[in-house]
Amino acid sequence: MPTDAAAKGVKLERYASGGALLLRRVASGKFVAASSHLLFRATVLATLALVFLFAFHYPSLLSRSFSLVSADASSSSATSSRLHASHRSLLMSSSASATYGGEKWDKEIRRSAKPRRDGGISVLVTGAAGFVGAHCSLALRARGDGVLGLDNFNSYYDPALKRARQRLLSDRGVVVLDADINDALLLEKLFDLVPFTHVLHLAAQAGVRYAMEAPHTYVASNVAGLVTVFETAAKHADPQPAIVWASSSSVYGLNKETPFSEDHRTDRPASLYAATKKAGEAIAHSYNHIYGLSITGLRFFTVYGPWGRPDMAYFSFARSIVAGEPITLYADARRDFTYIDDVVKGCVGALDTAARSTGSARSGKKTGPAPLRVYNLGNTSPVPVTRMVAILEKLLGKKANKRVIAMPSNGDVPFTHANVSHAAHDFGYRPTTSLDAGLRHFVDWFVEYYKLDTKIVKAAQAAADKKKPATKKKAAAGKSASS
Ligand SMILES: O=C(O)[C@H]1O[C@H](OP(=O)(O)OP(=O)(O)OC[C@H]2O[C@@H](n3ccc(=O)[nH]c3=O)[C@H](O)[C@@H]2O)[C@H](O)[C@@H](O)[C@H]1O
Prior knowledge:
Number of strands: 13
Shape: globular
Bound molecules: the ligand O=C(O)[C@H]1O[C@H](OP(=O)(O)OP(=O)(O)OC[C@H]2O[C@@H](n3ccc(=O)[nH]c3=O)[C@H](O)[C@@H]2O)[C@H](O)[C@@H](O)[C@H]1O
Order of helices and strands: HHHHEHEHEHEHEHEEHEEEHEEHEHHHH
Helix content: 40-55%
Strand content: 5-15%
Distance between the termini: 116 Å
Radius of gyration: 30 Å
Number of helices: 16
């Protein structure tokens, strides 16, 4: 009996627990039903919210108007956010979108692009809020040419500086659109509105060493973006414009022959940046060959000056010297530093001597061969980076906290030196600015732009002038001192 009772007890317990289980199952069944209902409602709501957000952020896809591209101006300079932001902004629009088109917009574009002198040219400048782009746009506008700029304002470096350049251009009547070179529809729209005689294509992902951190941004901008510009110019623009674009001294890569001449080997790039520029030169060849596009590539040599790029060594060193932060110098590095005004003269010379394209977007045929040119735009006098730092120290009145290390394996090359005889022959390119004179212009601008203590800097510059022998003093005073 005790065993029976015990067995019954176990059974009862089983029934009881079975009942509880049943009850729990019934309850959870109701719960599941109730939750699926809720889940269903939540999904519907979330879908509606997403559709709304999508429509709000991407009006271009729904309305067939054109979307503006602009990078997140407030993003920090931390590498990860820079990487993310610049990659995103190369191909996508960000939260700050707006629409293109409309009578007023068309009128603004036409007004900006219209030459104001007889025989003036009409130039679409890509990367117009960039360093070289802004200077070239100003120079073209100053002599009465029509200029329309575009720039994606990505945050590879401080977009506030790009906006300041945009304001400078706007004050002189040059419109710089927030737009990306990968936006083919926008480019087509611009070519529909304006019969541009020239495209000065300067938009690119710059920087030699950053290519190791963000390789795909280089492909998106320097390869895909370049193709989009060539495609539109070749197949849509009527008439086809002549194109002048920014290649780089970095294409010489591991070349050891000096000074670097356009005839030297360029098939051993040392960085991905260099490889994308070299790819650009090959792509230019094919568009010239097939479509009769007149194309000129300019190999820039470490361009510096006022309104420059904060990622470049001379600029970031100046900031670090002022802030008392250490700088790292790569031992024995030398560069053919080239002053911006000299480079601008080279760009304008290349535009003025570019023969017309020979193709037709309508027929898809070319009437004959069009020119394909490439030129070095350098200073022809390499200077050790240590010397560049010494000049900055003198001009800023402060010693740098230097750390010298062997050049790391980061895509850098130890030495550049341009032979510019082709550019000199074809459009009279003659660089005339010494590194002392050019850095002085840079420091004057730097001090004013960042509202630094001018008194300290002026005193340092006066002291430096006193120490100089008379002939050098004269050379440093002029903007176009000989190098
Ligand atoms: O001619 C070009 O085609 C390229 O020029 C520019 O590249 P670079 O000549 O490498 O300029 P930049 O970075 O200012 O370094 C200058 C020097 O400082 C040395 N350098 C650099 C950094 C550092 O921390 N320490 C250092 O010694 C370094 O070893 C170098 O010797 C453009 O950025 C590039 O976009 C492209 O246009």
